[in-house]
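Order emerges. For instance:

***
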Amino acid sequence: MAELLLRAVAALTIVAGLICLSGHLLRKAQVAGLIRAAASGRRIKVLESARLGPDSYLHLVHIDDRTVLVATGRGGVALSEATAAADPDVREVSAS
């Protein structure tokens, strides 16, 4: 009886560990851009993010029909609207 209970506990532990491991790997793959979440009906899309320092980030965000540059850091959040220039690879940024 004790052996059967020990096997059941061991099997349950292994299954729980595999579930946690697969969840962790799926989250890492989604963060790395290997998996995309379903985006139907979403109005906000992060185009690109860059780390500027230990607590500072720069995010290029598309909201509805606008592209916005968002800087975040210890001092708060700064927002600028980016508009397309003549060259599609170059963007002008106007401070808001």
